[in-house]
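> tool_call: predict_assembly(chains=two)
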Amino acid sequence: MQTIRPQPDRLLLAILGTAIGLSVLVLAITLFWGSGPVIAEIPWYIPMVAAFISLAGFCIAFLALGRYQVLRDPVSFWVGLGFATLSIGHLFYVLAWPGLLPDGRSIIARLDNTPALITQINLTLFGGILLAAVLLRSPEKHRLVGQRGLGAVAGWLVFVTLAYILLVAFEQYLPVAVNPDGTFTTFSRSLIAFHLLLFGAGSILSTRYYLGSRDVLAGYVAFAQMALVFIILMAIIGGKRYDLWWYLQRAIAVCGYLIVLFGLLSEYIHLVRLEREKTYDLHDRNERLAFLSDAAAELLRGNDPNILLDRLFQRLSVLLGLEIYIYYRLSTDGPFLELAALGGIRENQFETLRRQELGQAICGTVALTQQGRVVEDIQHIADPQIIHLQALGITAYACYPLKSQERLHGTLSFGTRGISHFNPGALELIRVVCDIVATGIERKEAEGNLLEYAVKLERSNRDLQEFTYATTHGLQEPLRKIELFADKLIEDLPELEQPPRERLARMRLSAGQMRSMVEGLSQLSRLAVQSQRLEQVALDDVVAQVVSDLGRQIQSANGVIEVSGLPTVEADRAQLCQLFEHLIGNALKFQPPGGKPHIHITSQPLLPDRVVIVVQDNGIGFEEEWAERIFEPFQRLVRKNEFDGSGIGLTICRKIVERHQGTISVTSKRQKGSSFMINLPIKQNR
Amino acid sequence: MLNGRSVILVAEDDPDDQEFIREAIAAVCRPGVEIHFVEDGITLMDYLQQIWNQPTKPVLIILDLNMPRKDGRAILRDMKADYHLADIPVVILTTSTSEEDKNLCQHLGAEGFYHKPGRVADLEAIFLHLCDMYIP
């Protein structure tokens, strides 16, 4: 439960003072000018007071229950209930007052003799409820009733009303409170003594509670109970109607009610104010939160830091009323700041400050110390450092370093011409913006570095490939000649015996193999540096061309090639020719002795934008476990002299397929043949 | 044809390759075939301009693509563009294994395109075929 400490509110204190003053006045008048019987002749004086008390009581109950709605504290609940009950009692008091009607009767005739009794009953109930307020103030004990809240109040009030109505029915059975001569009966006196106990104990408990918790309402409850104790004492002393003490009682009761009423009213207004402030505060906080999340989103967008700063400033200026910003970047040439961006100030107004040394002026010192500086009430300060700020009409100024990862990038400052002091929340927000801008700067730098590195890497890669290509290309020539000269040697020396002749032949063979391998490497590296010429290529045509180029080879191998329905894809035609030349060449080559190569080339669409081409042969095949390694360079799965070849043909095929954003794989069975699957996109992503 | 002799003009800068070609032609072509070597593109064009006015034009030109001073591809283009030289058959004999070169030369009108082989027998086969085709 929140404890409300009432703020001193001058207006309300004035009202309270007036109420007390008026009450004292009424008391004075009553004491010195009104003599008992004179006022008693006014038939409506007492009922009027009672009616007023009833009304005031209802107001108090209303305020107390309103307080309960907000604070949910048990004391408010019980006080509201108590005063409501009291008010109903007073209402019946008025109805029971004799002499109100012209013929001298009371409004409810049957209640003629009961006003005093009603008062007693009223006080009993009131006292009991106020005691409950203090005894049952802990939420656990209060829970039983408190949970039903206002429903319980309504129910109780209805019950009380009904009870009073019953009184009307059974008034003759009720004990009499006042003797015909105006003195209290024994019954009445004992009840009065009981009330004394009730309110006495109650006021002591309430005071203790108030002193402990400083709960304002407890204070009022204590006050009300003490007043009643006083009133009862006077009743005992007086014992008679219309005498001095009797009036005093009434006056004090009115006084007390007014004090409680106005006290609650002031607290109510204070509460309302607090609520409103809380709402403003919440609204404020929501706006700030929204700004921060937008700022984070801006950062993520990855814009240039200047754009980021500009966007953030737009929002900040609306939110905090800022009018200018100044962004200095730390120079890479020396210990000074250079103006990088300006907002809200014309360029020419700031000419002299395009450059600041570290340690000079505000931004300079901020950059040197790497601590923020806030200058407020600028127009009324004499400081040489801020002369230029004064000249621009700035009233409050905050400058913060732009730091990320312990590196200083520069400074960022914000200023306003409207207010002379920043509130702490505003400074916090400005600091956050500075952090965000610093992060943005750092990120942009990192991006730049990364890009530079990537470019270098790509260039280095290209250089490597070009070097490889040039080298391998150059190596082929001497190798060819070695092979040719070896060949010539064998021709020139027909009389050479077998072992040396055989050795020459193997030398020739090795030279040829090496040339083949180098040629393969050359082709492979050329694929890496070559730019592709993309066009719509009909794969049927490509295969037809390859078949025509390999004509002699196919014929001498007795090969049969079947092609069915190949699609058209976007590709480099020459490279695809190379691809099929290798695949078909291999299929023709890797046959068992006397075998007849039979090659099937088909295609299947795959997803909406890819196609799979299958090149199936009936050659010697290989074990499934080599399916991956077969595409590596120089992975020979057959004895060196069995089959010719560079050993790099399938590597070239894979490179070509990969450069077309595709994949190639193979399944095979020894002696049964192999099936190459080429997965290609129909369109190339450039 | 001059006095029953045919001239094959060979543009080849490598002396080893010159020897191989000479020996291959001697092995498979009929006697009386003369071979004239030029070492680069400029010399080739000069030679062609020289015999421009004479009726003895070479019956065949063997052209390497990668030559100093003027590239074989440029020579081919110029020759085929020249009305008087265009009808001389040009056959490319080169180390280049590039598919683009093959297509380019075919497109420019070369009558043949061969990779320099690594076996004497293969080289002789090429010239046997060429002599059959172009040497009367």
